[in-house]
Amino acid sequence: MVSAELISIGDEILIGDVVNTNANWLALQLTELGVNVAKITTISDDEQQIINALQKANNSVDIAIVTGGLGPTSDDITKKTLSKLFDTKLVRDEQAIRDIENLLGTYNKKTLDINLAQAEVLEGGKTLRNQEGTSPGMLYRHDKTLFIILPGVPYEMKHIFDSQVVSEIKTQFELPSIVHKYIMTTGIPESVLAFRLTDWESQLHDNVLVAYLPEPGIIRIRLSASGVDETVLSATIDKNIEQLKEIVPSAIFGFDNAKLEEIVGQRLLATKQTVATAESCTGGNIGHLITSVAGCSAYYLGSVIAYSNQVKHEIVGVNKAAIDEHGAVSQQVVCQMAEGVRKLCKTDFGVATSGVAGPGGGSPGKPVGTTWIAIATPHGTVSQVFSFGINRQRTIRKASITALNMLRLAIEQ
Fold first, then answer.
1. How far apart, in whole angstroms, are the C-alpha atoms of residue 63 and residue 67?
2. Which end of the chain is more exposed for a tag (fewer CB within 10 A), N or C?
3. 296: which DSSP letter?
4. Pairing of strands 300-305, 275-279
């Protein structure tokens, strides 16, 4: 199998000023191509560190992708170091100069000598045009390793990789057919889900791999298969997915990284129904997720962030006696919130949350993380209590996802 190492250069990454999203993105793209990412290395803007890393990569992997250090500032030393390591000259690429002049011209900026210096590339290599920035990329083969040198700016790096690097890798290496499929699930904890799928996993074909990729409120199940015939691989994975649907049908809400808020929106559009939200502990996050989807105005009519008891009572219509007797975080209150916002906005569904997001405010009877969620429907109101843990942001995220999933299930009934 074709192997690769990702080498990220930059002090800003090592000290935590910048998150290394480039390595994450590149690893995903290479895996999709059927390239095995054997190693990810992060080093500082130091000549000797760069030399050491590239010497180790040379002949140990088929592909080494280097990102960072191609800019115009004094700490951008990648090209000079590569020139020294490979004992080759840096020469100016005429097409790169034209690209730089054209790009700066669109901003009415003059091309300076420092910009032209960025057009220098390794003699004997291949220039990768950068039409999103001023630093071209490079391909340079040394011994058995293909070095791919890319700028560290994420959108520039992605542009060059998608437009030129993918085709180069496919041309220079014999890659296997590989198929990935993501099954999006929610509502079942990872350990419980894995236990319920034990027998299903044991029956998977030898060339099919399964991975559980959890995030707050959602677990992505990734099925991967590699081989010669992509059609056969796809058919094998599709069969496995059909079996999975029979085991956890209600937990699956979509495929291939579909977002729950998108799926809910599609269901509401298909049924020509509407929804409104009344949020306490989630503070408008459910509304934010829903409105992140284009076209949501067709089914999302409004929201009340009912954080205080006064707003719960005076605007949403919660009975003050229910708040006094049961507390804001209770089944009685959250159900009245869902029903009240449904009536207020004249929608088919009302969604409500009320909980103890933390880190303070908990009690023995209602510890931090306790959250009530209710969905008011044309046929009645459903509610459930959850315990989402002590981390405030995770509680808000989990409560929002859970509320959307309860809405999804209510629409499907």
1. 13
2. C
3. G
4. parallel
- Residues 153-193: tens digit of each pLDDT: 999 999 999 999 999 999 999 998 889 999 999 999 999 99
β-pairing, 36-43 with 3-9? parallel
- Residue 352 sits in a domain whose CATH number is 3.90.950.20
CA distance 248 to 192: 11
- DSSP letters spanning 222-257: EEEEEES-HHHHHHHHHHHHHHHHHHSGGGEEEETT
Report the distance separating Cα 205 and Cα 225, nearest Å.
9
113 in Cβ contact with 83 (< 8 Å): no
Count of CB atoms situated within 10 Å of the CB of 207: 14
Are 86 and 54 in contact by the 8 Å Cβ rule? The answer is no
Spatial neighbors of 33 by CB under 8 A, at least 6 apart, are 166, 169, 170, 175, 178
The phi and psi torsions of 40 (rounded to 5 degrees) equal: -125, 125
φ and ψ of 261, to 5 deg: -65, -30
Q: What is the DSSP string of 334-389?
A: HHHHHHHHHHHHT-SEEEEEEE--SSS---SSS-TTEEEEEEEETTEEEEEEEE--
**Cβ partners under 8 Å of residue 83, min gap 6:** 89, 90, 122
Which tens digit of pLDDT belongs to each residue from 49-76? 999 999 999 999 999 999 998 988 777 8
On whether both 299 and 214 belong to a single domain, the answer is no
If asked whether residues 284 and 312 sit together in one domain, one would say yes
Is residue 248 within 8 Å of residue 185, measured between CB atoms? yes
